[in-house]
Amino acid sequence: MNGMEYNKLGAMYTEVFRKFWDQNLFSDYGGSELKYKDVAQSIQTLKLIFEKAGVQPGDKIAIYGRNSSNWAKVFLATMAYGAIAVPILPDFIPENVYHIVEHSGAKFLFAGKSLFDTLEIEKLHGIEGTIAIDDFSVLNAKDDHLKALSAEGLNLMQGKQVKKEDFFFVDRADEEVQVLSYTSGSSGFSKGVMIPVRSLYSNIVYAQDHMPLRPHDRIVSLLPMAHVFGLAFEFLFPITMGCYTTFLTKT
């Protein structure tokens, strides 16, 4: 495991972020560079928003958008908080999205603005708040805390700078679900596949041992992160190696 030892998925990412704190981590194509510490700040702030909005560890958070650094921040914050990520492919039509949201029991939705505009809010059963992936503005809210933040002109990425030694991902049991991944729905409505913590962890460790990435390598991520292969091998694995990933936000 490249000289690093971990016990669980959360411990792995806590160690990795602290180790590469001042190194570049993400950028969108044509966008500015984000270091591990910049992404950590976003994760820390999103965790605070989850807490204020009443999200509990184990709750489901749906993510409906195209690949981007902000998409990555949302997924990592969900993992760091102990919630379950429900990635939704951006090519899904609204009926599929309504089905996935209701079937998964998601309480919170992050959506690209252009995609959210195609949805009818009243059909998003169970969703208590929606935040734009593009700029983290509040698109819809039932919770009073989110309504207040929205009225103030929300900027989620501002706040007290998190210290490296205080930043962490929670550890969850091996059999707990980390991702609820939905199929493309070619034979009807999408089916949910429960991916436990141990599955993500073991695939990342396998990639560390067998795939030729090293710290400071630059890679381009073009597979949809809402698909489990792109999620694991073009996003989650390179983070653990200290790589710098550029996301193609559109083809």
Question: Please, could you describe this protein's structure?
Answer:
- By secondary structure, the protein is α/β, with parallel strands linked by helices.
- 37% of the residues lie in helices and 19% in strands.
- Helix 7 packs across helix 8.
- The longest helix has 17 residues, at 36-52.
- The radius of gyration is 17 Å and the shape is globular.
For the record, give the distance between the C-alpha atoms at the N and C termini, rounded to a whole number: 34 Å
Poorly predicted runs: none
The main sheet comes to: 5 strands, mixed
Structural class designation: alpha/beta
Roughly what fraction of the amino acids lie in strands?
15-25%
Rg, alpha carbons: 17 Å
Order of helices and strands: HEEHEHEHEHEEHEEHEHE
DSSP E strands, number: 11
Approximate shape = globular
Strands of the largest sheet, in order across it? Answer: 4-3-5-6-7
Query: What is the residue-averaged pLDDT?
Result: 89
Helix content: 25-40%
**Count of DSSP-assigned helices:** 8
Structure summarized in a few sentences:
This protein has 251 residues and is of the alpha/beta class. The chain is built from eight helices and eleven strands. Helix 2 (36-52) crosses helix 3 and helix 7 (197-210) crosses helix 8 (228-240).
